[in-house]
Amino acid sequence: MNTPALAQFLSESGIELAGDLRVELISGGRSNLTFKAYDDKSAWVVRRPPTSGLTPSAHDMAREWAVTSALQSTAVPVAETVAFDAEGTVLGAPMTVVGFDPGRVIRTRTDLESLSDEQITANTAELIRVLAALHDVDYEAVGLGSFGKPDGFVGRQVKTWSRQWERVKTRELPDVEKLREKLAANIPSRSASSIVHGDYRVDNVILKADDPGSIAAVVDWEMSTLGDPLTDVALMCVYRQPIFDDVLGVSAAWTSSRYPSADDLAEQYSRRSGTALSDWNFYIALANFKLGVIGEGITYRALAGSDTGSGASTAAEATHEFMAAGLRALDGRQ
User: Fold this and answer.
1) How far is it, in rounded angstroms, from Cα 250 to Cα 140?
2) What is the count of structural domains for the chain?
3) How far apart are CA 187 and CA 175, in angstroms?
4) DSSP assigned state of 108
5) Residue 127: is it exposed, middle or buried by C-beta count within 10 angstroms (0-12/13-18/19+)?
């Protein structure tokens, strides 16, 4: 991190620093690199893409900046937007700066141990409330009418993740071909459109420090777009599978049996949003297909020497299970 260049950028963006600027890494690896920058009085979050192993469209800082800026005045909690370096002149890659929230993030089973069962129930209800609120935002009214192409979104998702499989596959898997063929043959004829987060689960929100039943900010928006809201819901549910730990390389909080089942989460969302879960098995199958490809991609990059995170070389071991789960969903055998 070029701290002097960042300090100059903040100053030129109208931020008067109180003392020396300090920077520390919050998280890195397979997602965007996240840093805490702070002086003697204030703190900010700086985000930029990882230094290697980029996947097309997976680390889009402009996308993240656009959606969080547009959501500032909505019921969706997001960090205060501060500054954006679209050209990457400061750190050598595009960078966003937003306000730092001192809340907490629940990432692992260990983090989850501090929550009571009642707090987990409240946390779940809040996650569902905020996701429904996001899908309820009038994206035209907040200036995101050109943020994506919701028409034909689901069909494009099948094609996009099929192409991605061809880029990252480390071996042939018959279930992949079977699943993508069945998905292509069963695309819903009609679907709703909304802002979708694209990666929604408990570790992609910041909770208020003293209240796990209240979200201070939804983060990690680089996969957001305009599309079918049920893709968000299904992905959130499929993330609940224990095999997802192999993709993340950690014992994730979100895969813990202390959270409601995928079916319960879907039902809660349906009630909260007033949305019927039409063609639900298709959406569950598509989410499994996507996660199977993601797991494969993590191992592909590890074998290429560009990802050394925990469990990266074995993440693809989950791919077959995700593809099999997708096929079971389409066959009505969830």
Assistant:
1) 39
2) 2
3) 18
4) B
5) buried
Q: What is the CATH number of the domain that holds 141?
A: 3.90.1200.10
Q: Are residues 83 and 148 in the same domain?
A: no
Where helices occur in 213-260 by DSSP H, the ranges are: 229-238, 244-248
CB 169 within 8 A of CB 296: yes
- Tokens 């991605």, located at residue: 164
Residue 264 and residue 131 share a domain: yes
196 strand-pairing partners: 225
Query: Has residue 78 been placed in a domain?
Result: yes
Q: Where are the beta strands (DSSP E) in 272-316?
A: none
pLDDT digits (tens, 9 = 90+) for 109-166: 999 999 999 999 999 999 999 999 999 999 999 999 999 899 999 999 999 999 999 9
| Residue 6 falls inside a structural domain | no
Residue 145 and residue 204 share a domain: yes
Same domain, 130 and 75: no
Identify which of 328, 327, 289, 295 has the alpha carbon closest to the alpha carbon of residue 312. Answer: 295
31, HSE (Cβ side, Cα atoms, 13 Å):
17
Helix (H) or strand (E) run with residue 95 in it: strand 95-99
Do 212 and 115 form a contact (C-beta atoms < 8 A)? yes
Q: Give the CATH number for residue 35.
A: 3.30.200.20
Element (H, E) at 45: strand 43-48
Tens-place pLDDT, residues 40-59 = 999 999 988 876 544 444 45
Same domain, yes or no, for 40 and 149?
Answer: no
What is the span of the domain harbouring residue 255?
Answer: 109-330
